Amino acid sequence: MVLKKKTQEINLIIKICRRNSPEDEAYWQEIPFSSQDPTVTVASALIQMNGNPDLVDVRGQKVGRIAWECSCLQKKCGACAMVINGQPGLACDSFLRNYQKKGQVVLEPLKKFPLVRDLLVDRSILYENLRTLRLWLQEEVRVADKDNEVTYQASRCLQCGCCLEVCPNFAPGGDFYGAPGFVVSSRLLPNLSGPELDRLKKDYLDHEYAGCGKSLACAKICPAGIPTEELLVNSNAIALSKRIAKGRKK
After folding, report:
1. Measuring CA to CA, which residue among 16, 34, 35 is closest to residue 26?
2. Longest dimension (CA), the chain
3. pTM for the complete prediction?
């Protein structure tokens, strides 16, 4: 006889900061949620709630469809980034069982990006900054063996914006582009040469090195676990190499 392991039921309140538009006043809605699935995540809970036309909150009021963003639901795209119990994270990687003892999970939109509605924000400034840095190769290059690990780590960036949410130096529209910029730059700086390298060095110094306060809050919050401190040090060394060389000649 095989005994089935008893599954602990998840029961908690999902408290969501809601706003119909950026101009509207924010309000909180508390929604009871239960599940027999120990692997249920914030993302799967939101999907389940949006699929229930009869969903009501703790006061018995009907719950309208919750606006948020998702894509892969496998911690690969970063689309479902939001603030969860005060910390930015991915909804698809946040398991409700971890909040069971607290009795509730609080969901808010990222605050460093313009709000669209509810938990949905406009992160286009992140991608615009990467385009400004022109972080792409004009032609195929061979990555040196010594740079393989850096290239691999940098390629894991989800561009979710969690690092920018906690960065004390980043502000939308500012000159400092934050961790997404220097992480992606770390893939290219070792592999460029000539005018392209000089151009990226200048842009890097203007938009990354000059504005970074080295708080490394990005390293502690990255959902992908990217070693941002290591990539920052490597990128800074390459970007400053010519300037250092000139200084030594004086």
Report:
1. 16
2. 83
3. 0.87
For 165-176, what is the mean pLDDT?
Answer: 94
Q: Specify the residue for token string 């508390």.
A: 30
CA distance 104 to 14: 6
Q: Which amino acid is at 136?
A: W
pLDDT higher than threshold 80 for residue 192: yes
Residues 6+ apart with CB under 8 A from 202: none
As a whole number of angstroms, the distance between CA 24 and CA 19 comes to: 6
Strands (E), the chain: 10-18, 27-35, 81-84, 87-90, 104-108, 115-117, 120-121
Backbone angles phi, psi at 18, to 5 degrees: -120, 150
In Å, how far are 18, 82, 127 from 24, measured between CA atoms? 10, 19, 27
The whole-angstrom separation of Cα 170 and Cα 59 is 39
124-142 confidence digits (pLDDT tens): 999 999 999 887 655 565 6
- Give 137-142 contacts, CB < 8 A, sequence gap 24+: 137/188, 137/191, 137/192, 138/196, 141/191, 141/192
